[in-house]
Every structure is written in C-alpha cells, then in structure tokens.
Amino acid sequence: MKRPFEFIIEKLVLISGLASIIFVVLIFVFLLKEGLSLFGQENLWGFLFGQNWYPISDPPQFGILPLILGSFLVTLGAIIIAVPLGLASAIYVAEVAPSGIRDVLKTGIELLAAIPSIVLGFIGIVTLAPFLKNVFHLSSGLTALAGSIMLAFMAMPTIVSIIEDSIVSVPKSYKEGSLALGATRWQTIYRVILPAASSGILAAIMLGIGRVVGETMAVLMITGNAAVMPTSFLQPVRTLTATVAAEMGEAVAGSGHYYALFAIGIVLFVISFAINLLADWFLHRGKKKRKKR
Amino acid sequence: MQNSKLKIIETNKLNLFYGAFHALIDVNLQVKPRMITGLIGPSGCGKSTLLRVFNRMNDLIDGVKISGSVKFENKEILSDAIDLITLRKRIGMVFQRPNPFPLTIFENVAYGLRIHGEGSRLVLDEAVQKSLTAVLLWDELKDKLSLSALELSLEQQQRLCIARLLAVTPDLLLMDEPCSSLDPLATMRIEELMNELKKEYTIIIVTHNMQQAARVSQECGFMLLGELVEFGDTKQIFTAPRDKRTDDYITGRYG
C-alpha cells in the first residue's frame, strides 16, 4: 500500500512529463486544422512553388516560394558565417585557451545567447544596415546579408557550446596517443579530435540552422521585408517567420490569407522538426560510436 | 666512453613534483639498449610518472616541476632546447588502454608518417605493411585496412598501437602497463611480441604484474613511494633482492 502523498507526487510528475507531448500534439492538430483549410481554394503545388505572394489582391495569390527562398538564403548566409567562427572559437575554448581566458569566453558566449533578439534587431537597423548600405552602395542596407549577419550572432552560442561539449568529450587518450607520436597540438586537433567530434559538430550545425530558421523578430526588422524572389544577398527578402508575424494581425479570421499563414506555420513546423530529428540522430550516433570503445 | 654507449637512458638525481607532492625522489637509473627493462612497484609509486618523463608527456599536466638530469643517448632531454616532436618520434609510447584513433586501420598506422610530412602513397603503403607485419597483424588485416580501428578486438587494438609506433621507426618503446586491459592469452601473445621487438628496439615496461616483469625483462627496477629502491638484473631482483623492501614486495607482503 503506497502512501497517499507518494501517490499524488508520482501522478503530478507523470502529468507534467506528459504535458509537453500533449501540447505538441495539440498545437500540431490545431495548425493542421487551420492550415489545411487553405487547400480547398489553393493546391499544394501552387502554394509551395508559386512565385507570387499577393495575399490581399483580388484574386489573392498564395505562392510561398519567395518566402521559402528568403528563409533559405538568410539561413545559408548565417550558417556560412556562424559555422567557421563557431568552430574556431569552440576549438579555442576547448583545446587552446588557458583556463582563465576559457571561463571569461564561456561567460561571454552565454551572454551573447542572453541578448533578446529584438535588441539585436534594432542594433542591426541602426548600425549594420547603414554600414552595409555604404560598403555596397545600396539604396537600403536592409538586406538578406544584414539578416544573415545578425542571425549568425544568434546561432553562435548554440553552435559554440555544442561543439565545445563534443570536443571536450573526445577521450583524452586520443590526444595523448597523438602527442606521444610527435604530433603538434594543431595536427592533433584537426587529424584526430575534430574527426572524433564530427557527430557533435554536425549536430551543432543542425541546431544552429534550427535556431536561425525559427527566428522572427530580428529578421522582420532588418531583412527589408520584400516578398519577391530573391536573387542576391544584397537584396531585401522576407522569411517565412517574418511573413506570419507581420501579417497575422491584419488577416481576417477565416479568410484564405488567414489559412495560408497557418499553412506557413505547418511548413515551418515540418522544417524545424526535421532539423531537430537530424541533429538528434547525429548526437545519438556520436554517443554510440563512443560506447563501442 | 665505452660505458656510455651501453646506456640509452640515464637519469641523474631526477626529482619530480606534482604541486607539493614529491612524486619522484632522486631517481638514478640507467637503461641499456636492445633489451627489456621492467619497472615494478605498487600503484602510486611513481613508475608511470617516471616513464612519462622520458617522452616529456608530463608537460601536459599543469603544476609539474622537474629537476635533475635525464639523458637520452647522451643528450639532455629536460632542457627547453630539446625538440619535443623529434624526441617523441624517437621515443614511442604504448598506453594502458589501447587507444587507436577513430580512423581506419591504415590511417592509424600511417598517422605518424603523415604528421611528419610523408605524403607518398607508396612509402605509406610499404610502411603500413611492414609495421603490421612486425606486430603479426598483417595476415589477419591486410584485406580490412579500410575498416575502423575501433572494430578490432582489444588485443588487436593494442598491437595496432604498437604498429603505429613502429611506423615512425623509434629507438625506444615505452610501455605503460600495456597488458592491463587484456586477457591472459592476449597478454601472453603481446609478451611474445615484445620478445621479438627487443631484437631491434629498446623497451621499458611499467607493470604492476610481477610475474610479467619476471617473464619479459632482463633488467628490472623496483619503485616505492617515488624512490627507485633497487635496480639490477631481473633474476637477481626476484631471487636475491638486496633491499628488504624489495623482498617484502616480491614475496607479497604488500602491494
């Protein structure tokens, strides 16, 4: 016979544990219900690959390809900037820095993660955008490139801390073995430690992408918000997230526009779900590989 | 002069501190080439520390202070002027737990040559075959060179780690309890391998297994609490130790 107190606590913990799953399912069901209503008036192909997003013209056009490409371009740029920087700084923190500097750097990276995205957004507007405008002689600095640079800062903390973790968890014996053969520190890092940490590095990149794809406020502020097919980094673009954020307030509930925004939500959900799954798979693979030893 | 040719390693008043802990106390040791020298003693006596002085692996640990002299082929290796990369190429180390890199078998053996700038496939191929042959793995593995080294059995991994050293043609092999994670049969085979290797290489082996030291080594040192208590011919150490502490240890009174 269990004591009643134990019983209550046990059930409470169980319910809390299940809550997250229930919420995810409920949100997804709601998204599906609202989003799928769009496909009474628009086919899936036209939605995903249509090149025109004119939701309030008559007749409305709900092609989100420019938005998908906008998100893709901004994310690609951010990752191109954040991954090499993040990798290098993770290597420095994990393998090179003396312990005093290491602590300062780790704190700094955590602080970077603590900056609200809206703050990064307006700093981007007042400093980065004018700078890009002058450097590239543009009519406006609010471009995909500006978004990429700001988002790279937001992805950095995730990328650095996960790569650092995976480097630190590479068995010390690899390092010793390599150094004892007369390898230099750098040879040891790039020939042994990085390959051994590769799963973690891939996972870090995936989670960085996830962070960037889902980001809304900063990109809404500094990418210029033009829902046109992007052709270059120096052009204003609009992302999936920014579209929902900007238009949800004015879309009439029950209209095609409203449903289309929910359908965009489904697309975002699927993308980040896939990315997280992939990241998880990489992390898991890394752990399994290590266990084999 | 004749005398110094008979020593590959010579330490003189070697003292080592980890912070305030006195880990090696006035160690004077002479290791002769082309034979196996054993170092025995209870755990924590400093035998692994001593081994790690010879290839300067203690440099990796913060707060280590060393004084005295250690000569490798009559050259002082404790001086800052010594080139660690060359030193570690000439003095290889086998660790307690086999530690092959998470690379292919081929790349594990080729690793040492690659980091020292060898890029020719022909040279690498030849060195890999020669080294694997020397550790008696070639026939087993010649068709599996692109397999991950982590797929091998522990004994094979330890052999591979030895092959990895042989590829860079060292003069001295340091073995830090190389059989402690192997079963008795694998241990026996590694010991046979050591007997083969001593024809061309000098080996210093640290072991807590007295029988192993008695089986494989020609000269042997007994360490206790950081001191090299006794050093000499292995037979003499095990049958007629001069020091009472050695006698107590080998007869199993502590350890």
Main features:
heterodimer; A: 293 residues; mainly alpha; 2 domains; two-stranded antiparallel ribbon; 1% strand; B: 255 residues; alpha/beta; 11 helices; 37% helix; 25% strand
What topology does this entry show?
The complex is a heterodimer of chains A (293) and B (255).
Chain A lengths: L3 H33 L7 H6 L3 E2 L6 E2 L2 H32 L2 H16 L2 H20 L7 H25 L3 H9 L4 H12 L1 H17 L2 H6 L17 H8 L8 H36 L2
Antiparallel strand pairs in A: 1-2
Helix pairs in contact in A: 1-12, 3-6, 3-9, 4-6, 5-6, 6-9, 7-8, 9-12, 11-12
Chain B lengths: L1 H4 L3 E10 L2 E11 L4 E5 L6 H8 L9 E9 L2 E2 L7 H7 E4 L10 H11 L5 H14 L3 H4 L12 H13 L5 E5 L7 H14 L4 E5 L3 H7 L2 E6 L2 E7 H6 L4 H7 L5
Descriptive report:
The complex is a heterodimer of chains A (293) and B (255). By secondary structure, chain A is mostly helical. Chain A folds into two domains: 4-40; 45-291, MetI-like (MetI-like fold, Orthogonal Bundle). Chain A has twelve helices and two strands. In chain A, strands 1-2 form a two-stranded antiparallel ribbon. In chain A, strand 1 (53-54) and strand 2 form a beta hairpin. In chain A, helix 5 (117-136) crosses helix 6 (144-168) and helix 7 runs antiparallel to helix 8. The longest helix of chain A is centred in the C-terminal third of the chain and has 36 residues, at 256-291. The radius of gyration of chain A is 23 Å and the shape is globular. The model of chain A has no long low-confidence stretch (mean pLDDT 90). Chain B is an alpha/beta fold. Chain B has a single domain, classed as Rossmann fold. In chain B, the strands form two sheets. Chain B has a six-stranded mixed sheet, with helices on both faces. In chain B, strands 2-1-4-5 form a four-stranded antiparallel sheet, with helices on one face. In chain B, a hairpin with a 2-residue loop joins strand 4 (64-72) and strand 5 (75-76). In chain B, helix 4 packs across helix 5. The model of chain B has no long low-confidence stretch (mean pLDDT 91). Classes of the chains: A mainly alpha (293), B alpha/beta (255). The interface between A and B is medium-sized, with 20 and 28 residues.
